Here is the input.
Amino acid sequence: TELSVERRFVPESCPRAVRPGDFVRYHYLGAFPDGTRFDSSYDRGSTFNVFVGKGQLIAGMDQALVGMCVNERRFVKIPPKLAYGSEGVPGVIPPNAVLHFDVLLIDLWNSEDEVQVQIYFKPEKCPRTVQVSDFVRYHYNGTFLDGTLFDSSHNRMRTYDTYVGIGWLIPGMDQGLLGMCVGEKRIITIPPFLAYGEDGDGKEIPGQASLVFDVVLLDLHNPKDGIAIENQIVPESCERRSQTGDFLRYHYNGTLLDGTLFDSSYSRNRTYDTYVGKGYVIAGMDEGLLGVCTGEKRRIIIPPHLGYGEEGRGKIPGSAVLVFDIHVVDFHNPSDSVSITVHYKPSNCTVLSKKGDYLKYHYNASLLDGTLLDSTHSLGKTYNIVLGSGQVVLGMDMGLQDMCVGERRTVVIPPHLGYGEDGVEGEVPGSAVLVFDIELLELVSGLPEGYMFVWNGEVSPNLFEEIDQNHDGEVLLEEFSEYIQTQVETGKGKLAPGFDFEKIVKNMFTNQDRDGNGKVTAEEFKLKDQEAKEEHDEL
Here is the structure.
């Protein structure tokens, strides 16, 4: 004769219970005491949706639903006076029938509800939060209040990308995303009148359904954003900053806003080398690399419209904000020449190095960032060259000019005067600016340009006869070599310093052997000034 409610299952968590005036969605089985079923929401494939306490239900059910939690199951016995009484329902429920209902509560909300936000993870650093008109990328699991999953971006392995606050989302999600930080995780509970309302979405979401979204925000920007630069390490000494048209070598780690690594020059063990301000890199990087110093480390945050846009690229998803942590190794301009800084010059600096001089010097060679490449000090011997003979890179030939013994200087050589784009495999990176700290230890003056041998005194008028020791009218290489060696040893002549004796002599002999038969005759034999005179006469 009285209402009976048996709580057959009560969930551990019950944040909210039914109150009069709430709207509920529930499943039920309706039967008579003998077990005969008279109705079932399961058979219809849809929940029963109704307001509680507003007379839309029989009195017994109105009372039995109060206090229920979502996912709670109750077995309810309702006497006739709280059901259909003495009249019953013709053809369905006889008069004075006791009704048994097996009830499972699926959903619960009130017309005064608002969006509920539960933050369960928030990053320590939150430099920016979602505002109206921002564009966001987030992952979510969408469930009903009873935990039934209806959608998941994780299953599609693709973020949901949208503007916030301009009507692209259901109103409740527009509200629920505001104020989020990148990396934040929150649960957003949305009543149906701020979601898909009475009709649902026509697919997975039924009418009048509360929705629960478990959201993690991965990305955030605004179409009005420019790049953002965070200086991390700026060298105390910065004599030069990069400008449009400069060529940079830099290392970088590229990540998304949530910290996901998508690329790294370090993993390839090679710098990224490019011109700046000429469209060789994405627009945001072109801008972010201007004004940097060699050795500087900075973070460049690039919105997608200055990055890879809506389409993305490779491991970079569409509409992604990019974060580059860069380290500038060096930069130069194609118009650069050799830079010379003199640190010490002896007071008695009268003899300056020139083309053809034989030089002995010590050096330390490094990159602009200070990475040591090579050092003669570690080898324990000097580096010896003939200046201007192509024995070193062009920039070094230029940097050693007009130097006196004892002088110390730093020579900075751009790559187009050094080892170029290719560098030296395993030793010098391609397109690297080189820095040489040099000390000149010895200088042997060279011969006039074009000469490999000169006389220190008067030339014998019978020179050919003196060379032709066996007086057969022909001079062989052996005779020629022996004669030149004697002149050098006795101080009568001088060879160009720094070259191999045999190579010089052979070169001189070949010049005299005009018919190439391996012998020099008196008719072929001419001194250099005689050759020049004959050419002049011919002209």
